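Hi D.,

Good news: the full-assembly prediction came through. Inputs first.
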Amino acid sequence: MAHYDLHTPVDESQIRKLRVNDTVTLHQTLFGIRDATQIHLFDKGRTTEFDLRGHAVIHTAPNVRKVAPSDAFPAGYQPVCIGTTTSDRMERFTRPLMEQYGVRMIVGKGGLREGSKAAFQDLGGVYLAIIGGTAALETTWIEKIEAVDLDDLNPESLWKFRIKGFGPLLVGMDSHGGSLYDEVKGDTAARRAEVLESLGVPTK
Amino acid sequence: MKLDLDIVEEASKELYIRALKLLPPDVKMGIEKLSASETSPVAQRVLETMRANIRVAEDTENLLCQDTGIPIYNVALGRNVEFDGFELKAAIRKGCERATREHPLRSSVVHPLTRKNNHTSCGIEVPVIHVDFTDENETATIEMVPKGSGSENNSFLKMAVPAEGIDAIKMFVVDCVISAGGKTCPPTIVGVGLGGTSDLSIALAKRAATRALGTACADPEGAALERELSAAVNRLGVGPQGLGGDSTAFAVHIELASTHITMNPIAVNMQCHSARRAKARLTTDGLTYGF
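Then the structure:
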């Protein structure tokens, strides 16, 4: 269980070092991405002006206040509350995000499934677990919203955040086939029969 | 008492913002209790982050969670309250819209086919407004629940039959909690609706999921089953955020209704650890806020 401070963008060798249960704190840049963003990128043929190679994306759609663009608010948006959404819904986008855009880290909550695990192994990526529902805290790790693309999808735009010490995040899935979610699922399945038996429910 | 609709509008606005920022004391206590008994070190760290978040939200007067949810308003009107029902619903909608624009809040509400967002938190049939009547004299209460999608996406209905008995209820609840895993942002309040029709059981499950912690089902058989299932789901090992541990649920809550001789409907609706709700009470003495 090691801790890593990663400045984005990162390369494959940095990602390959990470193992489940390690912790990571991100620095510099983080991109925000969501259901509609990815539906438009991968199903509707749209593209982004951002270079996501070696970067981290977070499953999010923030609360923002529209303001006049300035040094503090270059995109014309002031962060209000920025958190994380459930990743599982966006499972099918992990591989194209990595293959087509070179994304290396996905920050989210609740975990991803087999397809993502395989993509992380094949292409060198990780899933970094953040604690869902702790957006007030996460907002303090965001310095500013630097830029925004695909903003007709607001709040599901593609956001570019400048971050300061974003974490610690837990490596929930690594590039070696490790997944904390698989471990918990296996454990839960094993406990099911015992729990049902304690409730007097026959399982056979 | 004549219901002042300007106050209703203002309260509906305030309630949305209050619900998003102030976690009810029973839920805060629930997190403390789970922290005290949790045996997994990873789960302990997750719960500590949740406690830190509550402190930061209070200190910075910020929203607890980014998900502003689907806005739900539960209105309970007592006796001798004079009101125009149509205007009452319009005032609540206006308040909800104003909260979204004036705070501002993320509008999480879209058309189901076009996915268009009006940026008002309002849309067709949304905010959800439920109206009921009570015997409290000259009193109206409005409860606001911003229902987050992570937990709402894990909603389940099983039209079990009488021959499957109570065992079907127990197995269904256990399997729903396993299936939801970390997606619902556990620890959750597992709301279970039993009986009625398909739609009534789902409504009961939501009522159960949004009931204050520490309260019990009014029906003694329901209350006994709540206790049994609350202990059982916390032996499944799902844990906070689905990362393993003892703290899978604050509690299992049950609400029930009578049903048909041929039916045994079971609905499950969950509420995440940020189990947000706020309440306003309007009487002849004025307006007060609570949970």
